[in-house]
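Figure caption, in words: inputs first, then the predicted bound structure.
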Amino acid sequence: VRVGVVRESTGGERRVALVPGAVAELVGRGIDVVVESGAGDGSLLPDGLYSAAGAAIGDAWAADVVVKVAPPTAEEVTRLRSGQVLIGFLAPRGADNRIGELDAAGVRAFAVESIPRISRAQAMDALSSQANVAGYRAVLLAASLSTRFFPMLTTAAGTVKPASALVLGVGVAGLQALATAKRLGARTTGYDVRPEVAEQVRSVGAKWLDLGIDAAGEGGYARELTEQERDTQQKELEKAISGFDVVITTALVPGMPAPRLVTAAAVEGMRPGSVVVDLAGETGGNCELTEPGQTVVRHGVTVASPLNLPATMPEHASELYAKNVTSLLELLITDGALAPDLDDEIVAGALVTGKEG
Ligand code: NAD
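Bound structure (nicotinamide-adenine-dinucleotide present):
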């Protein structure tokens, strides 16, 4: 079987699906790898490193299995042919996903977002590996936009109070944000609608904000709040948020628009110079004043909505993603041949085309 690593064409996407170390591992298992010239450039991985790892440089789009990072563009879909396997972020729940087009083209597409989050699949969990990057970068962005220090400083020129940071929505990204803000010296607080998260929040040295709402849903995810719960939450958060220097939001409910947690009034209540970093911009944002992809200043508060933060740290983001991809490939390839076992719940879950038979 031949695996092709293509060059990403989406603007700003600097990640690559396989790094040379992962290529060497596949080659060692008897799998041919072909890399499109320049595929690793965004991650500072020149073609030479891929050749040295045993890959051919050539037409990766013609391989049996095409691996990539960002969802394919319309033009990219036309490069695929019937019977080929595609692995990548395919945004299957996104409004403008191309699953229908891939299906019509006869491509067997595996969406990393659809891999069931069971323990056996942890090494393939690209949502988690990239959410870790996003949570970390969100805090660094907040720190650089802030007019204040994160740590407490005692200097000859005076003492500076530590910043207080609130993280709303503590999944993988939120937990990493709490841990990162803590390492920078901030006093941290976490909030989520799944009560089981309280313990994880405390384990990274943060306080738990309890608003008395339990919205634990299926499969470890949150459910959408009722209208009344949402009103209560917004009002309670308005009060709580005014005391924080930094608010980082990561709240998501799969397949739904991002829940509105930070109202315009809450932003207005913050001290000028404070920062909101909203990681939910792609699905509309957790903050009412968020402009997806933009950084705006409202009432003296900076509201930033960076999109695709993992692409801004391409080296490690690609390295972690490559591990996720090789773990999935291991499941799809047996004795050097492509043999997806559709009775395996991971394989069946990840396959997003050909569902009707
Ligand atoms: P996510 O990115 O989908 O969502 C982020 C957080 O937002 C979640 O914690 C969610 O509860 C929270 N949220 C949703 N609506 C909210 C609201 N109205 N107010 C406040 N918070 C709200 O989350 P994720 O990082 O994908 O993680 C989701 C769950 O999956 C977690 O329990 C995580 O531990 C679990 N998980 C399990 C595995 C595994 O076992 N293999 C792997 C990864 C994640």
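The chain has a mean pLDDT of 96.
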